Amino acid sequence: MILSMRGLSLAVMAAGAAAQNPVTSGTGGYVGSNACKTCHADVWLNFYKNPHFKSVASGDLPPSRTGCESCHGPGEAHVAAHGGKATIPNAFSLMPQAKALEACLTCHARDFQKANIRRSEHTLADVACTSCHSIHHSPTPKFLLAKKQTELCYGCHAGIRAQFEMPSKHRVNEGFMECSDCHNPHGAFAPTWRMSDHPRMVDQALNNEEPCLKCHVDKRGPFVYEHPPVRVEGCEICHFPHGSTNERLLRRPVVFTLCLGCHNGGASGTRNNGVPLQTSPHNLLDPRFQRCTACHVRIHGSNADETFLR
Ligand code: HEC
Ligand code: HEC
Ligand code: HEC
Ligand code: HEC
Ligand code: HEC
Ligand code: HEC
Ligand code: HEC
Ligand code: HEC
Ligand code: HEC
Ligand code: HEC
How many CB atoms lie within 10 A of CB 79? Predict the structure, then answer.
């Protein structure tokens, strides 16, 4: 109780301080959101539903952070001129993507500590905030997206849709998953798996691990006996993440060809690449031995057997 009363009095004090601040009383070029209503009724009347309305509702932020002018900049000159694009400091239709990005980041930079926002593949390709978000005309209540997420991404990545139509797939097109379950469209830092190669904006889940492990928790380990590629190269060394004509999203139609990509019986005779191909216990001329995972059932790691037999 005491705490909440203190919170209240702080808020009142802040509001009082703001009222005495010369900026709110008309200088600095800020005129307040109400001044926009007469000419922009459509935008203005819908704004109460916008998460950015919070700044108006709270009433205790400086004018540079409140309402319409928090994004568009001080509107005095624009109002005096009775409109015009060039008279409002941030007219997004005239702004290059890079400048729009900075306008949004004045408030949102902190949200992207894990996103590498300024050097993401999207930012580098000039795909920025307003390519994906629509502040005033979003059809989706969540995250102010310009379109429903999957359609938004397919709008530019049309080729990916077909991958999610393959016989073995993640059910993205059916609406059970979204691109953002695995990707961070705001960018990602170099991953800890696959030796930091080609991050492809694959999101890093807790502990910087692959996002796959959020759902496939039984593959997480740590296992007493790890199968190194699962962690080192990452899941996608053996699986296509989107879809595949091979069952279980595998990169090869027959499991043993996948295994032999690494365990290729090379002359060096090391354990890694030196599986004896035609001797007991692996006579690969006998089809029975070609179903590697029929015996090596714990292929993602085992707590009981160093050759993943159980
Ligand atoms: C969070 C930032 C932000 C806030 C707050 C904001 N706008 Fe916008 N506004 C934009 C962006 C970005 C665009 C470009 C079009 C888009 O993405 O929807 C835009 C476009 C516009 C346009 C051009 C026409 C249109 O419908 O797209 C008008 C007019 C406008 N805003 C007025 C306002 C008014 C009035 C307010 C306050 C009620 C306001 N804006 C608050 C970011 C903002
Ligand atoms: C007297 C009427 C009037 C008032 C008041 C007014 N505007 Fe405008 N505004 C206009 C007109 C007219 C345009 C259209 C200019 C054009 O399309 O050439 C416009 C355009 C805009 C745009 C669009 C720029 C773009 O990207 O195309 C924004 C943003 C905007 N106004 C914001 C505001 C804000 C914020 C306020 C309140 C501080 C405000 N306006 C008050 C008349 C007004
Ligand atoms: C390539 C498309 C794309 C771009 C570019 C983009 N976003 Fe997003 N943004 C999304 C999607 C998709 C989501 C929803 C993510 C989810 O469902 O978890 C989102 C979510 C958000 C959220 C809410 C959740 C969160 O992650 O904090 C904020 C805030 C946000 N974006 C702001 C921005 C800003 C600011 C920029 C520019 C600096 C930007 N976005 C650029 C697609 C994009
Ligand atoms: C003046 C500060 C400020 C600016 C500038 C600003 N935002 Fe925001 N934004 C906020 C606040 C505050 C929230 C609400 C966060 C919350 O709900 O806790 C928000 C929320 C969002 C959300 C999340 C909506 C949701 O459903 O969770 C998105 C997306 C977003 N902003 C995008 C943008 C984009 C794009 C721009 C640039 C055009 C922008 N913002 C500019 C302060 C700002
Ligand atoms: C406005 C167009 C546009 C939208 C919308 C868009 N992207 Fe992109 N995306 C690009 C461009 C351009 C690139 C960089 C060039 C390339 O690699 O294709 C890119 C790159 C990527 C990459 C990295 C590709 C690589 O080879 O490294 C991924 C992953 C990605 N986008 C996912 C998404 C997701 C997920 C969404 C939806 C949330 C989305 N994109 C929305 C245009 C877009
Ligand atoms: C199950 C996780 C997952 C989902 C869901 C997912 N992706 Fe990916 N995506 C990945 C991984 C992992 C890679 C990196 C693959 C590689 O480099 O071998 C990738 C690569 C990409 C690439 C670059 C390589 C290419 O094939 O062009 C693009 C673009 C892309 N994804 C877009 C999307 C879009 C758009 C969606 C949603 C419609 C989506 N992804 C959904 C995990 C996923
Ligand atoms: C949001 C949760 C989620 C994430 C993240 C996720 N998956 Fe899945 N995955 C599923 C679900 C659910 C299925 C079951 C198939 C279905 O939806 O019909 C599945 C199926 C699979 C299958 C096929 C299983 C079978 O029996 O055919 C493989 C392989 C797979 N995922 C690998 C991955 C990889 C690799 C990643 C990361 C690139 C990943 N998953 C990320 C939820 C997820
Ligand atoms: C060395 C290759 C390899 C790597 C790396 C790998 N997998 Fe697999 N995975 C397989 C094979 C082979 C199968 C099919 C097993 C079978 O036929 O019984 C499989 C099956 C699966 C299945 C479906 C059956 C089950 O066990 O649930 C899922 C889900 C799966 N993998 C997820 C993952 C995830 C998540 C990762 C990364 C953490 C990963 N895989 C890494 C080879 C691999
Ligand atoms: C991307 C390369 C790669 C692929 C693909 C791969 N492995 Fe491995 N595997 C390794 C490495 C590296 C080791 C560790 C070797 C070592 O410790 O000497 C290993 C170890 C093993 C071991 C443990 C025995 C040992 O030598 O330590 C077995 C059993 C095994 N793999 C079976 C398989 C099977 C079955 C498949 C196909 C489903 C497969 N591997 C696919 C790289 C791979
Ligand atoms: C009929 C069951 C069976 C099949 C099928 C099978 N293995 Fe094995 N694998 C074994 C047994 C048993 C061992 C020996 C375990 C031991 O020596 O402790 C073994 C050992 C291994 C080892 C470790 C070799 C070493 O020198 O330590 C690797 C690697 C391996 N298998 C890979 C494969 C690959 C790749 C395939 C598919 C081409 C495959 N296995 C098919 C039963 C099988």
Answer: 17
The residue to which tokens 């059916």 are assigned: 174
Residue 109 Cβ contacting ligand 4 at under 6 Å: no
Q: Which ligand is nearest to the CA of 98?
A: 3
Closest residue (by CA) to atom 20 of ligand 7? Answer: 170
- ∠ at Cα 309 (305, 310), nearest 5°? 70
Residue 239 C-alpha to ligand 7 middle, in angstroms?
A: 10
Structural tokens at position 154: 């397919």
| Residue pLDDT, tens place only, 236-265 | 999 999 999 999 999 999 898 898 888 865
Residue 159: Cβ within 10 Å count = 7
Integer Cα distance of 222 and 225 in angstroms:
8
With tokens 């306008």, the residue in question is: 103
Q: Measured between alpha carbons, how far is 136 from 236 in angstroms, rounded to an integer?
A: 39
Residues 65-101: tens digit of each pLDDT: 999 999 999 999 999 999 999 999 999 999 999 999 9
Residues 6 or more apart in contact with residue 283 via CB below 8 angstroms: 277, 289
